[in-house]
């Protein structure tokens, strides 16, 4: 479905003679029917990647094809078959839900009886029926996102590119949105979604972790988690800040990451928990509990980012090999 | 180009316009308001310029001169003063714009042969000071004051010479004076289109063309607005083609321009009483062409400048100021240096002014206007073509 080879995009500011490499050395293939998550913090290059795939941004070098169409030479052919949902709300705030959808149907040549049928179907799907006469501006953030998704689906695209579709949306609406995506995935659509949220990444069949314009790791969420060396221990203690300082210096501790009132300690081996407890009480930290925990994607991601920075930004696989 | 796509874009643009109360007001009423206000302000013929009199002669003749000046509707004698200091003072305060200074001996100069001789040797005993800060009214007031005074003095001197001749003065000497006293020459002006030289007849049609540039200015922010609103990214990610986007954006503005033309036509005829001597259907067709030419240029700005304020400023610098000063509305294009003359060719307003004046006052046919129609066609077609070429369905 999508083949990306050594894609690179550099933004040059002509005035300030500065250039920013938004995406570099990106090589990736995505098969039909995948629900692929592009995961990474702000500024990782997710949006730039999706824009290039949507045919609205020229790469500086490298190449990519979407449905067999070249993203530079055949951009218009890609747009015909693509459902693209930009990060920013792309519909017209002063138009009603109906007017917006009719406009998009016109533009994608969804006409006649098929149009009303399709709109009905999608509004059922996204639960926007009661809001057809409402101006898009007056919809809540979550409803706007659902409307934008509806608009991206009117022409039954083979491929959906969704750029952070749930950013700024409340947790309930977020869950609803992902239920819709899961349904789309189940019905055979290819979906590429970018997200800064790890819980969303867990729901993808494959994730690509992006950082500083590079793809660090790309695999199934399970495989990515397994790439985390050693084991994870969850620590609760009276003084987590002191605990973090102490643990960081221990040889068998690979990484320490705070998550609220829990400290995730990534160690070379489960068996080390006794040594860790001893070291903590020696430092005057009262341990409430210290037990093995299943690794989470977030822990893997943060570990990779730290490793990546320490290894001069070489991709993780390369470092391991 | 897909017709459905053009209509879809046109429909959504139309909704944007009518859903924004400020933009619908500015676009529908703006040009008409501009026409009414500016025409009223600029074309009111000069009347009742305040005049003060410093009369040191105090004779029946000086009284008569002042009366005649006051009787003319351009001038209005408002006060008499008693010193040159007061004259200076009132001029500075702008209480009076013209001062009539009559020196002692004014009557004497008009009532004897010796006086007449002194008129030529020492100069007349009447003079004027005019406040030139407003050149248009100053010029009119000056001409009027001179005309009235010369006429009165000539008349009075002729009466005096008649009396002298009856009293048995030397006939040959009288004849010499009469010869010298040539009455002010009056020119027959054959003015066909604006016999009363009504400035307003000339101004209103030109003003219609200038006011019709407002939709062009308005459309110059259309891409910038979608850009800042965030909708451009989604729009360019759809398969709609560039021509359809640009043409669709222009169509509602063409419609608005035509509504404006009709409103302004009514205002010109009813409020300003300007005659319309051309073919109305042709006029509407040419107005649509003119509107499309300005819109094509507006679209070009819109594509080049993706910042709402900057696009508006750029279009103001292109449309409004040159439209007013270089289009021939106030100053005839013939007086400009060659380079500027060439420059005016690419201003749609220049041709718009010619066409509007021609249609209203002269009732000319399309054949007479071919050069300006051709210019507008070139601006419309080339402007649109360049806009399409420069518009990329990409971001950044």
Outline the structure in words:
- The complex is a heterodimer of chains A (321) and B (396).
- By secondary structure, chain A is of the alpha/beta class.
- Chain A has 2 domains: 2-220, 3-Layer(aba) Sandwich (Rossmann fold), CATH 3.40.50; 225-320, Alpha-Beta Plaits (2-Layer Sandwich), CATH 3.30.70.100.
- Chain A contains 12 helices and 14 strands.
- In chain A, the strands form 3 sheets. In chain A, strands 6-7-8-3-9-10 form a 6-stranded mixed sheet, with helices on both faces. In chain A, strands 2-1-4-5 form a 4-stranded antiparallel sheet, covered by helices on one side. Chain A has a 4-stranded antiparallel sheet with strand order 12-13-11-14, with helices on both faces.
- In chain A, α3 (97-107) runs parallel beside α5.
- Chain A is globular and about 75 Å long.
- Chain B folds into 2 domains: 49-192, abc type-2 transporter like fold (3-Layer(aba) Sandwich); 198-395, no CATH class.
- Chain B is built from 18 helices and 4 strands.
- Chain B has helices at residues 3-19, 21-43, 60-71, 84-92, 106-111, 113-121, 135-166, 171-180, 199-211, 214-219, 222-229, 231-236, 242-270, 280-304, 308-325, 338-345, 348-362, 370-390; strands spanning 49-55, 75-80, 98-102, 126-130.
- In chain B, α2 (21-43) crosses α13 (242-270) and α7 packs antiparallel against α8.
- Mean pLDDT of chain B is 86; it is low at 183-195.
- The chains are: A alpha/beta (321), B mainly alpha (396).
- The interface between A and B is medium-sized, with 33 and 27 residues.
């Amino acid at each position: 479905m999508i083949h990306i080879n050594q894609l690179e995009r550099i933004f040059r500011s002509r005035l300030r003679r500065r250039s920013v490499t938004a995406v570099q050395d990106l090589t990736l293939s995505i098969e039909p029917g995948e629900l692929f998550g592009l995961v990474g913090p702000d500024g990782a290059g997710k949006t730039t990647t999706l824009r290039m795939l949507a045919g609205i941004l020229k790469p500086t070098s490298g190449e990519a094809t979407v449905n067999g169409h070249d993203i530079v030479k055949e951009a218009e052919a890609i747009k015909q078959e693509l459902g693209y949902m930009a990060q920013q709300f792309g519909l017209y705030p002063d138009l009603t839900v109906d007017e917006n959808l009719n406009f998009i149907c016109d533009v994608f040549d969804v006409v006649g009886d098929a149009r009303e049928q399709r709109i009905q179907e999608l509004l059922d799907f996204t639960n926007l029926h009661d809001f057809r006469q409402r101006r898009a501006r007056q919809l809540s953030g979550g409803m706007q996102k659902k409307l934008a998704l509806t608009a991206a689906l009117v022409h039954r695209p083979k491929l959906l590119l969704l750029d952070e579709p749930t950013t700024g949306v409340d947790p309930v609406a977020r869950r609803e949105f992902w239920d819709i995506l899961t349904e789309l995935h189940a019905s055979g659509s290819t979906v590429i979604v970018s997200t800064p949220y790890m819980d969303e990444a867990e729901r993808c069949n494959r994730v690509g972790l992006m950082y500083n314009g590079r793809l660090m790791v790309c695999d199934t969420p399970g495989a990515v988690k397994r790439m985390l060396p050693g084991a994870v221990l969850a620590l609760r203690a009276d003084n987590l800040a002191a605990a973090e300082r102490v643990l960081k210096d221990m040889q068998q501790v690979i990484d320490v990451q705070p998550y609220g009132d829990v400290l995730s300690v990534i160690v070379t081996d489960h068996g080390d928990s006794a040594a860790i407890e001893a070291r903590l009480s020696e430092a005057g930290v009262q341990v409430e509990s210290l037990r093995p925990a299943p690794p989470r994607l977030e822990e893997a991601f943060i570990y990779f980012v730290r490793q990546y920075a320490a290894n001069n930004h070489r991709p993780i696989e390369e470092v391991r090999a | 180009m897909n017709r459905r796509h053009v209509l879809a874009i046109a429909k959504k643009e139309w909704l944007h316009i009518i859903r924004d109360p400020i933009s619908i007001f500015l676009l529908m009423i703006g040009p008409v308001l501009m026409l009414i206000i500016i025409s009223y302000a600029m074309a009111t013929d000069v009347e009742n310029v305040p005049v003060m009199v410093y009369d040191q002669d105090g004779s029946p003749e000086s009284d008569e001169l002042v009366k005649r000046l006051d009787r003319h509707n351009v001038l209005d004698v408002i006060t008499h003063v008693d010193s040159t200091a007061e004259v200076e003072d009132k001029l500075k305060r702008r209480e009076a714009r013209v001062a009539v200074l009559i020196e002692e001996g004014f009557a004497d100069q008009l009532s004897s042969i010796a006086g007449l001789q002194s008129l030529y040797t020492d100069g007349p005993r009447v003079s004027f000071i005019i406040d030139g800060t407003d050149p248009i009214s100053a010029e009119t007031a000056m001409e009027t004051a001179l005309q009235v005074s010369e006429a009165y003095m000539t008349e009075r001197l002729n009466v005096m010479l008649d009396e002298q001749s009856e009293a048995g003065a030397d006939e040959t000497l009288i004849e010499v004076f009469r010869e010298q006293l040539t009455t002010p020459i009056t020119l027959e002006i054959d003015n066909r289109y604006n016999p009363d030289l009504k400035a307003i007849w000339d101004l209103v049609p030109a003003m219609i063309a200038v006011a019709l540039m407002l939709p062009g200015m308005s459309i110059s922010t259309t891409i910038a607005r979608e850009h800042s609103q965030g909708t451009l990214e989604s729009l360019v990610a759809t398969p709609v083609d560039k021509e359809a986007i640009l043409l669709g954006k222009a169509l509602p503005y063409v419609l608005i321009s035509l509504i404006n033309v009709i409103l302004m036509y009514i205002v010109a005829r009813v409020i300003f009483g300007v005659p319309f001597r051309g073919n109305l259907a042709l006029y509407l067709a040419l107005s649509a062409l003119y509107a499309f030419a300005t819109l094509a240029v507006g679209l070009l700005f819109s594509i080049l400048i993706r910042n709402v304020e900057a696009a508006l400023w750029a279009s103001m610098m292109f449309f409004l100021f040159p439209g007013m000063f270089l289009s021939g509305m106030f100053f005839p294009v013939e007086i400009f240096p060659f380079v500027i003359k060439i420059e005016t060719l690419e201003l749609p307003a220049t041709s718009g002014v010619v066409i509007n004046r021609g249609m209203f006052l002269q009732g000319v046919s399309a054949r007479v206007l071919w050069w300006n129609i051709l210019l507008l066609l070139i601006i419309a077609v080339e402007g649109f073509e360049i806009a399409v070429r420069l518009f990329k369905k990409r971001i950044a």
